[in-house]
Structure formats: structure tokens, C-alpha cells
Design brief:
- By secondary structure, this protein is α+β, with helices and mostly antiparallel strands.
- It has two domains: 154 residues, no CATH class; 217 residues, no CATH class.
- The strands form three sheets. It has a five-stranded antiparallel sheet. Strands 1-3-2-4 form a four-stranded mixed sheet.
- The longest helix is centred in the last third of the chain and has 25 residues.
- The chain is elongated.
- It starts with a helix and ends with a helix.
């Protein structure tokens, strides 16, 4: 594997998809990607996302993947072993402890290479230039070598076979929301005419001037984030219509009422079956829990804790689109009622029509169920934590 494969892996990590090539088949069992149904493309898996999110850069991720292969692992371990020997010869115990600690579970295999320790150039200069920025034996590469070897060990523990993903068809919701899909971060600024074939698009456009049953459904079907948010309001409405204990509210701070078309964040309030009201967190947190339940991953390099703030921010203007499309309705509230959102009266009957049942309610019933299930579980988790603190 040389520079071409390195560039393909970088594309896979940064764009979520790349062209398949026979030279990458040796890495297939690592479970870092899925195959397109025609075998022509590789699509990033959750394992690859997790790996990227655990490392500083895409280049570090590529280096870790190459380090799973014996030829690279041995060559790079020899260089690290030479650096460790040098630290030992200088009696620099602190450096030895830090470096061996950074190697983590890879330390044993590196120490086994002490007899072969060498700072000579390897045969992989093309790959190293792209992954490290210079040859592996250069001092600037050393911290990256430690990370690559340490991360490679964790990848090998997760060996899995690739599965196939079908092309996205907006007329087939079941295939669109297929498990193991990636969904791009919501984006209202860079609308592209080129649709993703295997990743759920993050593009969100306003619905347009004409709003009726057919145009609303068509907009939701081609806009995954709007479709997901519509199911949040629908799940809330179905839950309320059952007239049993429990429920879901989407509230905003009264000071945000004048910004209801673009609130800074929406708070999720869940009432449990025991009639306990729990302020769970933000809408972004709920959506991430739901996506995880659906085995769909947010395509981002951000670590999980950073994803919530990012998602709350980018969803904010989309709330206005949901209100404009008359899918969501904003309720101003009163002195006794906090401002909140609910399903719009114009959209409320649509899921029960023939067209709405075929295109929304029935194929999306697992999404509706996941929203309610995650909301209930979340509230129970938090209410249990509150009781334990008391």
C-alpha cells in the first residue's frame, strides 16, 4: 500500500466514502468500513468514526490503520525501540515512563523489538510523508508513531466483517434509514444539488411558499433532519393522545420566546409513568440518543461531548424551517405555561392519511418508537440519579 491508498483512506475519513480498491482488501476485516451494494465504494463505519474522534487528526487515523499491518508495525516499532534505548542510555527515567505509558498495550510488542532497534529510514516514505508529514525516523514523527502503534492495538480488538449498504432512495424510507448509515451534520449554508448516495445528507432547505400535504411530505422525505424532527413532534403527539401517564415537552426559556424561530437550545422535559417531571437535557442530546438507538452515526470528527453543543447550534435555524413548514407549532405560553413546541394542527392529521401512512407513519414507526423509548429511558436514568443523591 502506497500513497494512493493513503489518499483514499484520508478521503474515507474526511468525506465518509471513497472508491474501493483491491489493495485495501487486506484491511477489510478491521470493520472500519462497509461496502456499497455494487462493491465499488467503501463507506465509513462507526468504528472508523470512533477511531477518528479519539485521535487529533485524520492523518493520525490513517497512521493507526497502517500500523495494524505487520510490515508497518515492525518497521515503526524498531524506530520507537531505538528512541526508548536512547532514553535508557541517558538514564532518563521520566521519558521512558511517559513513552511506554503512551504506547499502552503496544508497549510489549515494541519492547520485543529492542534487539532490532534502528533509526534507519523505512521503505514507506510515501505513506509516512502523508501520515506524519515527514519520514518516520524524524523526531517530529515520534509522538505520532506512539499514537499510531497504541491505537492500532485497539483496532485489532474490533475485527469485523464488512456489511453492504444500499443506495439511498428517498421514496423508500426503510432503506434510507438502514442501520449502520452515517448522517451528515445539519447544514443550511452549502446546499448541493449532488445527493449523497450512501450517507444521509445534512443539507436542509426551507420548504418553499406552497405548503400542503403533498409538499410537506415530499420535503420531509428528501430532508433527513426535518424528517427526524417531524417524528419528534409526532411521537410527542401520539404519546399525548394515549391519555396515560407520561409525556414529552419541548420547551425554551421565556427569554428566548422572541427568538422561537432560531432558539439557542430546546430543553427536553419528560414526564415519567410515575408522573415525575424530569428536565433531561437538550434536543440535540435526545436526537443523538435516538440516532444511536437506530444504529445511525453522526458523521463528525468531534468527540461525543462536543457533538451536543455543535448539534444544538446547527439545528437552531432548522426549527424555524419546521415552523414555516407547519410541521411544528410554537406555543407562546402564559404566566403559568413555559413557551414550547408541539405538532402543528395542519400536520397533525397527515400521518393518519393514506399518503402519510405510506410515507411517514408506517416506515418511520421504528423512529417514533425510538424517540419515545429513549425519552423514557433518559428520564428514568436521571430520576434514579436524583433519588440516589438524595
Amino acid at each position: 500500500m502506497m500513497s494512493k491508498e493513503t489518499l483514499l483512506l484520508l478521503a474515507l475519513i474526511e468525506q465518509g466514502i471513497c472508491v474501493n480498491t483491491s489493495n485495501l482488501e487486506v484491511l477489510q476485516t478491521l470493520g472500519l468500513w462497509h461496502l456499497s451494494d455494487d462493491q465499488q465504494c467503501l463507506i465509513a463505519s462507526k468504528l472508523l468514526l470512533d477511531l477518528r474522534q479519539s485521535l487529533p487528526t485524520s492523518q493520525d487515523t490513517v497512521a493507526a490503520i497502517f500500523a495494524t499491518q505487520a510490515t508497518y508495525q515492525t518497521a515503526w516499532s524498531n524506530i520507537v525501540a531505538a528512541q526508548l534505548k536512547d532514553a535508557g542510555s541517558r538514564n532518563d527515567e521520566q521519558a521512558l515512563i511517559e513513552q511506554i505509558s503512551q504506547l499502552s498495550d503496544a508497549a510489549e510488542s515494541v519492547l520485543n523489538q529492542l534487539d532490532n532497534a534502528s533509526l534507519q529510514a523505512t521503505n514507506f516514505i510515501e505513506v509516512e510523508s502523508l501520515a506524519f508529514g515527514q519520514a518516520a525516523e524524524q523526531s517530529a514523527s515520534y509522538p505520532k508513531l506512539l499514537r499510531a502503534l497504541a491505537s492500532a492495538v485497539t483496532i485489532k480488538k474490533d475485527e469485523k466483517s464488512a456489511i453492504e449498504l444500499t443506495k439511498i432512495d428517498s421514496d423508500n424510507i426503510s432503506s434510507t434509514w438502514q442501520i449502520n448509515r452515517l448522517i451528515r451534520v445539519p447544514d443550511i449554508t452549502s446546499i448541493s444539488d449532488k445527493a449523497d448516495q450512501y450517507l444521509l445528507t445534512g443539507n436542509v432547505e426551507a420548504i418553499g411558499s406552497e405548503i400542503d400535504k403533498q409538499s410537506s411530505l415530499a420535503w420531509l422525505l428528501k430532508t433527513p433532519w426535518a424528517y427526524l424532527l417531524a417524528h419528534v413532534a409526532y411521537a410527542q403527539d401520539v404519546w399525548r393522545s394515549e391519555q396515560i401517564a407520561g409525556g414529552l415537552r419541548l420547551e425554551i426559556d421565556p427569554t428566548q420566546a422572541k427568538h422561537f424561530m432560531q432558539p439557542s437550545k430546546i430543553q427536553v422535559i419528560v414526564t415519567t409513568r410515575d408522573d415525575v417531571e424530569v428536565s433531561c437535557g437538550t434536543l440535540a442530546e435526545l436526537l443523538l440518543r435516538v440516532l444511536d438507538n437506530l444504529s445511525i452515526s453522526l458523521f463528525t470528527e468531534l468527540a461525543p461531548k462536543q457533538q451536543v453543543a455543535k448539534l444544538d447550534a446547527v439545528i437552531s435555524p432548522i426549527i424555524g424551517y419546521m415552523v414555516e413548514a407547519k410541521v411544528w407549532q410554537f406555543i407562546q405560553g402564559s404566566s403559568k405555561d413555559i413557551p414550547h413546541y408541539q405538532i402543528h394542527p395542519q400536520f397533525e392529521p397527515i400521518p393518519n392519511t393514506r399518503l402519510g401512512t405510506i410515507n411517514f407513519a408506517r416506515p418511520g414507526q421504528h423512529i417514533t418508537a425510538a424517540i419515545r423509548e429513549q425519552a423514557e429511558h433518559w428520564a428514568v436514568e436521571l430520576s434514579g440519579q436524583i433519588r440516589s443523591v438524595r
